[in-house]
């Protein structure tokens, strides 16, 4: 039996899809080995793609790191371990937003709270030079 923790619910008009907006998954990012500064290896990621794009085989994600010093940058958003069922406190590296194949999502940790997701959205908007459309991330 498929549980909500591993997959989203299936309905007759919607196929089973991994990776909904705001969910935190463990993903294999190994193909990102270019010798540069991209995050690689197997690590938690947060899905930032809108759910309307579920039919795509790819998903837009932000990698997480255990390096809490990265939270001091404008593009880093600290995520507490209790926030989404993570094994440790982490930082969302919003400047490293990328697209991966959904098949690289291995297992689901949990879901980011709406206020924390707004912090991530605001960091993404800043990085991409988009006007801020959300107010206080705690509201």
Summarize the structure.
With 139 residues, this protein is of the alpha+beta class. The chain has two helices and seven strands, in the order ββββαβββα. The longest helix has 15 residues, at 114-128.
Task: Give a written overview of the molecule.
The chain is α+β, with helices and mostly antiparallel strands. 14% of the residues lie in helices and 28% in strands. It has helices spanning 81-84, 114-128; strands at 23-28, 42-47, 58-65, 76-79, 90-93, 98-101, 105-111. Strands 1, 2, 3, 4, 5, 6 and 7 form a seven-stranded antiparallel sheet that branches. It starts with 22 loop residues before the first strand and ends in an 11-residue tail after the last helix.
């Amino acid at each position: 039996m498929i549980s909500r923790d591993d997959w989203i619910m299936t309905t007759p008009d919607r196929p089973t899809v991994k990776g909904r907006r705001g969910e935190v998954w463990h993903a294999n990012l190994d193909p990102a080995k270019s010798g540069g500064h991209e995050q690689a290896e197997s690590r938690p990621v947060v899905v930032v793609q809108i759910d309307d794009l579920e039919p795509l085989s790819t998903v837009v994600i932000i990698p997480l790191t255990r390096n809490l010093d990265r939270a001091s940058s404008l593009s880093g958003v600290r995520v507490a371990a209790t926030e989404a069922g993570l094994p440790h406190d982490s930082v969302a590296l919003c400047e490293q937003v990328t697209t991966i194949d959904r098949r690289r999502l291995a297992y689901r940790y949990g879901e980011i709270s709406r206020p924390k997701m707004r912090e991530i959205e605001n960091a993404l908007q800043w990085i991409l030079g988009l006007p801020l459309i959300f107010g206080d991330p705690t509201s």
